[in-house]
UniProtKB/TrEMBL annotation:
It comes from Echinicola vietnamensis (strain DSM 17526 / LMG 23754 / KMM 6221). This is Activator of Hsp90 ATPase homologue 1/2-like C-terminal domain-containing protein. It holds the Pfam family AHSA1. It comes from the Bacteria. Residues 11-129 form the Activator of Hsp90 ATPase homologue 1/2-like C-terminal domain. Belongs to the AHA1 family. InterPro entries: ASHA1/2-like_C, START-like_dom_sf. The lineage of its organism: Bacteria, Pseudomonadati, Bacteroidota, Cytophagia, Cytophagales.
Length: 131
């Protein structure tokens, strides 16, 4: 199984970063404006990227201000069954974010494109949380 992993350091407390990653307002400013999100275990978050289908992630783990894990239940075929986690560590109001997109079946060109886009996602998350 393949895994995408990125790290970034955000000059904001973990509480703020967690709020952005678990709210429609936050993810709407970082990822896509067309979404349905609730910070509840078992809730299926929906993200529309205008690709002809809705990407759906079921929330499988929530540790407030510490960790979020989603499982993809609908999307591009290569994403279904993969998981995305955000691990947050706060030290003196600088939050380390480790993003993992794991359980990929193969390292394909779509995997490589998504790897790039997750890096851009973390860049936008940093910019939004710091400004």
């Amino acid at each position: 199984m393949e895994s995408i992993e990125h790290i970034n350091y955000i000059k904001a407390p973990a509480e703020k970063v967690y709020q952005v990653l678990t709210s429609e307002e936050g993810l709407g400013n970082v990822w896509t404006k067309k979404l349905k999100v609730k910070p509840e275990i078992g809730f299926v978050n929906e993200f529309d990227f205008d690709e002809g289908y809705i990407t759906k992630f079921k929330t499988v783990e929530l540790e407030e201000n510490d960790k979020i894990v989603w499982e993809c239940v609908a999307s591009d075929e290569e994403w279904i069954g993969t998981k995305v986690s955000f691990e947050l560590t706060d030290k003196e109001n600088v939050t380390t974010v480790i993003l993992k997109h794991f359980d990929w079946r193969a390292r394909t060109n779509f995997y490589r494109w998504c790897n790039y886009n997750w890096g851009m996602f973390l860049y936008r998350l940093k910019h939004y949380c710091e400004n």
